[in-house]
From TrEMBL:
<feature type="coiled-coil region">
    <location>
        <begin position="49"/>
        <end position="118"/>
    </location>
</feature>
<feature type="signal peptide">
    <location>
        <begin position="1"/>
        <end position="20"/>
    </location>
</feature>
<dbReference type="InterPro" id="IPR005632">
    <property type="entry name" value="Chaperone_Skp"/>
</dbReference>
<comment type="similarity">
    <text>Belongs to the Skp family.</text>
</comment>
<keyword id="KW-0732">Signal</keyword>
<dbReference type="Pfam" id="PF03938">
    <property type="entry name" value="OmpH"/>
</dbReference>
<dbReference type="InterPro" id="IPR024930">
    <property type="entry name" value="Skp_dom_sf"/>
</dbReference>
<protein>
    <submittedName>
        <fullName>OmpH family outer membrane protein</fullName>
    </submittedName>
</protein>
<keyword id="KW-0175">Coiled coil</keyword>
């Protein structure tokens, strides 16, 4: 079954190459990392990481202080009990913040990638139509290209068009 599937994929690829006269390549990852919008979105995500890290660092400090206080021999049993309860609440709060951070950062990253990919796709289509390109392969982290000749790479042109839109 796999051989039949592979045969059809190769056949479709060969037919596409036979029909396509002008072929180009775009490195989507490069555009995502170096475009103005990509850098802006990456910066926003990094700021959110710093925000959550600051909150978690603050909780860690509080936990350390309470743990040191619990080592004190002069602390009464009642005071130790309250400190242990406070420690448990802080650890729970830290875990909650960690989960919240992971969820929000994951959503921010997915949204940013979705926006960038849709924009890059739109601009690449415009470029391909304007320059009579029949087929554009994508590369980078999400591409399936093993090799390409630099002569067909239109990544820098797409990046320039995309950055011009961001002004």
């Amino acid at each position: 079954m796999k051989k039949v599937m592979l045969f059809f994929v190769l056949l479709i690829g060969l037919v596409s190459f036979a029909v396509a006269e002008n072929i180009a390549y775009v490195d989507v990852q490069k555009i995502m990392n170096t475009s103005k919008k990509g850098k802006k979105l990456k910066s926003e995500i990094q700021e959110k990481v710093k925000y959550y890290q600051s909150k978690l660092d603050n909780i860690d400090k509080q936990i350390s202080q309470i743990e040191k206080q619990l080592e004190s021999p002069v602390l009464s049993e009642e005071a130790k009990k309250k400190k242990k309860e406070e420690l448990t609440k802080l650890k729970e709060e830290g875990a909650k913040i960690q989960q919240e951070a992971e969820k929000e950062l994951s959503q921010m990253k997915a949204k940013a990638e979705r926006e960038l990919i849709l924009d890059i796709k739109r601009i690449t289509e415009e470029y391909a139509k304007k320059h009579n390109i029949d087929m554009v392969f994508i590369g980078g982290a999400i591409g399936g290209v093993v090799y390409y000749d630099k002569a067909i790479d239109i990544t820098d042109e797409i990046l320039k068009m995309y950055d011009r839109e961001q002004k």
